[in-house]
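Problem: given the chain below (186 residues), write out its structure.
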Amino acid sequence: MDMSVICALGANLSGDQGDPVDTLSAALCELVSKGFSLVSVSRFWRTPAYPAGSGPDYVNACCKLRTSLDPRATLGAFHDIEAHGGRVREARWGARTLDLDLIAYGDAVMPDLQRFAQWRDLPLRQQQSCAPTELILPHPRLQDRAFVLIPLAEIAPLWCHPVSGQTVAQMLAALPEAQKAGIHPV
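Solution.
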């Protein structure tokens, strides 16, 4: 059975596939070539690097997909596409040629509600140095990131977070305006 998937895309370095806009476009094509059905894609957005000063501005987007792959295989396919796009995993939250984040897989909460909550509630300092070794769904910091919520609001404003029950529009409205400043369509 096909599942609905939300993917956030980002890039802030040029690579073999060109500049970040070209790289995101190529990644979308590669998702389709790997068997994902592309349901919708947001516009591309220029966003300040996060955290501030960690590199050049990003180009970000979100897409909705359908897949018959399970969550781990979906993430594995995303990692393969990142590698093909020149992604090298060196520094956490560092500059990169391509980043594909599995934001949500249907209404799945993985590995369980307790582990999800631990990662969601992890203090910022620890977030910068710790990465989970297991798949955490939905993305534990989705509600905190304007660079994900702004493009996601274009294609799924009524998507409901399976833990908080908030829609994308509600999560975006709850963010301070300062976090949304500087994010503009490409």
